[in-house]
Amino acid sequence: MRIFEELREGLAIAFRAIRANTMRSVLTTLGIFIGILTVTVMATAIEGVNRKFDESASAFGTGVLYIQKFPWVSNEDWMTIRNRRQIEVKYADRIERQATHIDAIAPVVATRREVTAGSKRTDGFVTGTTSGYLNASGATLVDGRFMTAEETDGARPVCAIGATIAENLFPDEDPIGKTLRVGGRPFTVVGVFEKQGGLFGEFTSDTRIFIPLAAFEGSFGTRRDVTIQVRVHEMKDMEDAKLELEGIMRNIRRLQPGAPNDFNINQQEILTETFGPISLTISVIGLFITGLSLFVGGIGIMNIMFVSVTERTKEIGIRKAIGAPRRSILLQFLVESSLLCLIGGAIGLAAAFPLSLVIDQFLPTAMPLSVVFIAILISLVVGVISGFMPAYRAAAMAPVEALRYE
């Protein structure tokens, strides 16, 4: 219980000292304020970008594989990849017949075009596919339905649209049953996808207009890059499914044993594995910069605490003369330095919140409670470290020498 009494007494003395030297206290906490503000804003930005990336990557589907001509990430020679043969739509039928680890498959081909509805216009990715796309992609509809097999096989003039297309062309009405025009050809909207958002907007369903593959080829031709999307039956079968698909594709492409693949099987994990080291590097650089700010602030606190100890040498001598133990003197100055840092940290934290809202307009941010607790903990740790040497010096003073100090 004695320690709590000493802590309460130390807090009372610290508050009196801070009030007695208001301007000096304000200038002292300025370094910690800037350091904590920088730490918090950096942490919220990193957390926001990480969350946004995870949200964006999830749009690609955790159980979906993409058979494509180009890899998403590669160190290979670009000209070699560029000269690969195109992936063909007809591969999808053969893969569907032979693969044993998949639930759904759909060829996808796209081109960017202007889309109109009445007087409204917007740009979007016109995407030709089959009725299996909804299951193969894992995307979700919020209104209506997707195209049926009869509609895709018969090249019917129907379409399903992304959330952004719906917002731009039909802002104040239900899009279902309405007509839009793609390449001068009318299509009736039968479904609207759930908004996905994220950093990869153009690769999600948000900016897409899905039409039957046969209708796409009739309007825009067949010489396009094709992606074959495959949904794996179970996540535990992912590696087996990739190996199986690789074997089927090599057979289809008639590749000789030992010859390199002239196609890629991409998946969400490729993006995650690539982004992880980048995020870590950004975090390390950010923490180094903010660490410098806190180091400078901590040096300022330490200098001021040495000045405070010197100014209050006689007070220390009186307290020791009437029986105050070294622990009590040590705690008194540790509490004061910690309090200065906590005040600066609290103000920095309060300023970081509205600043993060402003930054969020340009860069995704997020301030979970963990960031708040870490900022407070850092303030406290800096206060204890910065105040320890001055506090130890005060606690080590001989009472007689302290009382003689002028």
Tell me about this structure.
By secondary structure, the protein is of the alpha+beta class. It has two domains: 2-56 and 273-404, no CATH class; 85-262, no CATH class. The protein contains 14 helices and ten strands. The protein has helices at residues 2-20, 22-58, 78-82, 91-98, 133-137, 149-153, 163-169, 213-220, 238-252, 268-311, 313-321, 326-359, 369-395, 399-404; strands at 64-68, 102-117, 120-129, 141-144, 158-161, 179-182, 185-193, 208-212, 226-232, 264-267. It has a six-stranded mixed beta barrel. Strand 2 and strand 3 (120-129) form a beta hairpin. Helix 1 (2-20) crosses helix 12, helix 2 (22-58) packs antiparallel against helix 10 and helix 2 (22-58) packs antiparallel against helix 13. The longest helix has 44 residues, at 268-311. The chain is elongated, with a radius of gyration of 32 Å. The model has no long low-confidence stretch (mean pLDDT 80).
SSE topology:
Blueprint: H1 2-20, H2 22-58, E1 64-68, H3 78-82, H4 91-98, E2 102-117, E3 120-129, H5 133-137, E4 141-144, H6 149-153, E5 158-161, H7 163-169, E6 179-182, E7 185-193, E8 208-212, H8 213-220, E9 226-232, H9 238-252, E10 264-267, H10 268-311, H11 313-321, H12 326-359, H13 369-395, H14 399-404
Parallel strand pairs: 3-8, 5-7
Antiparallel strand pairs: 1-9, 1-10, 2-3, 2-6, 2-9, 4-7, 5-8, 6-7
Helix pairs in contact: 1-12, 2-10, 2-12, 2-13, 4-9, 10-12, 10-13, 12-13
